[in-house]
Records
---
Amino acid sequence: MSLENEKEIQQLKNRFRDLADKASRQGVFTFTGFLGLGEQEVFWQTEKDIRFAGYTLFGGREDSDRKMVRFGSPEEFGYEAPFPIVCVHIRPLLPKFAEHISHRDFLGALMNLGINRSTLGDIKVGDKEGYLFCTESIADYICEHLEQVRHTHVKCSVTDSCGEILEEEPEIINVQVASLRLDAVLAKVCCKSRSECLALFQSGRVFVNGRLCENNSRILKGEETVNARGYGKFMLRGQPRETKKGKWNVEVAVYR
């Protein structure tokens, strides 16, 4: 779902309220579909009006970008309800002849099946294989119908081995910036001018720790994760070090 106008935003806010009301009124857990960062920001804008129901965000892994919201309180209800999320392993039928497959390739093949984006969570990509988090309701359909990604024939299966899922290996770089302002660090990491970075802020494409950030002069702190939609994400590692000339040496983990 792309939030391109106020009508879509209001519909999403109403959906959150309806799910929260149902959970509170009936004493049952309710779930959204997977939400992108923009949709999660709409949730946070609505949070103060629906926190009465209790809520948890989760996407299959603690570091997931796309997440579901579960409304309801285990303490109040007296029971726990797992998120309806499963992991599908997508791998080539003939690994020897398989080509490199990108995140975009996997997503494109899935969308060509006519699947609603809200049923799909993160896709973790490895060497010629991928792990997809999705709703339980769509997993069997994907396993039955996803047969090819680009020119590579694939097979799919639901896996419980989430602990073995490929960990993203970030590229560790060291940059020197005049300021720890978010736009300064973003410009250096993404090789963009400050004016180009400002346009990212103005178009609502910069998130810090999963929350929309519109303040380009915000001071970035150690261990904070920045997601610039369309340009990947990075995390400031450790504490920045000030040089004798008043600049800052920063170690950054970059996820392309």
---
Amino acid sequence: MSPTALSPARTVLPNGVVLLTQRTTTQPAVAIDLVLRTGSVHDPVEHLGVANFAAHVIDQGTTSRSAEQLAEAFDDRGIALEAYASRHRFGMTCTCLASDAESVLALVADIVRRPSFPDDRVATRRVEIETGIRRDADSPAETADALVRALIYGETHPYGRRTSGTLESLARIDRQAIADFHRTHCAPERATLTIVGDIDPGAALDVASRGFGDWTSPPPPPEAALTPAASNGRRRAVRSLPGKVQADVAYGFAGITRSDARYHAFWIMNNVLGQYGLGGRLGDSIRERQGMAYYVFSELEANVGPGPLIIRAGVSPDNVERAIASIDEEVGMMGRDGVSDKELADAKQYLIGSIPRMLETNARIAAFLQTVEQFDLGLDYDARLAGLLEAVSLEEVREAAASLLAPDRAAVAVAGPIDSASGEEART
């Protein structure tokens, strides 16, 4: 499917559920993607990680179906249902045969509307989540990521804390806390359902209306305002993880919102910096020419609030300071000088050329439409995207780089087999 072929239909059910449908006929399958505009940003302070916990247990039984019955219903159809929680999303996704779409949508509706959160499944999932938290705490990459986010935003900011919470907060989350989160925040007016595949949009609307049309709940609380990032000064944190083979560096800044008019300029800037590692400045300098990193890349997480731009690198413990100095050099150079004409042209060509890959499966189209709806990008965004990228000027990319990339404002985190005392700097 070409990126200009999308023609989604958008319908808002009387209870506020947004339905986006796109018919494709390349295969007899349907992708179903249900997203509620909630997530770890709504975790109560005493129950950090509750959204993630709810996502782990929401498909483990409803008021009318046991966990075993749900598992059998999906397994019999060869379907893997994924439930997840991120900072601003609580969702479920799956792909099924077109002939199973109606029954699968009924199952998804039952799960999101009437979960029972059985005590035995809560206990099982608690162990799994605890294991994950412990595993992340022992991972240099995950530890560096957690440290840099806390440096950028502060440990109490929704963007500065882990979506999984902590071992301490996990211990305080019981079945009632999970049920309270679901009842308070999982409301029809926060729901967007995308259905993409070999199904007539009218039939999809009928099926969705039967499953979700009579869903009611108390109005959810208003969206909480996100406070600014913690600081713009240089900050550094180091955590020693003895016995590891490599050290991981996370180096970042508070970036922009996805709705920022400068987004496409920032996207191009980040692509030149090192969005995919090899081919970007970071990968060319630090990995290829200097041979210092096992991997290095940059990631721009524009979100509802100003999400971070984070540079990540895995290096030998002996090369940590050299790698950070090289990142400083590349970041400082781009912040001062911007990008070249050739880099701009190459980045545009690459990103525009990647648009078809963004839409090559029903599941990817469904996810794309969720982003379109969440950030009000317009149902023709796929058709306009190439033009929006092509229209970005060299000066706009330079201004984006200058507004963000300054080593003296960077948050720098290191985790691995190194002496934490030797690298610790005061936070400012």
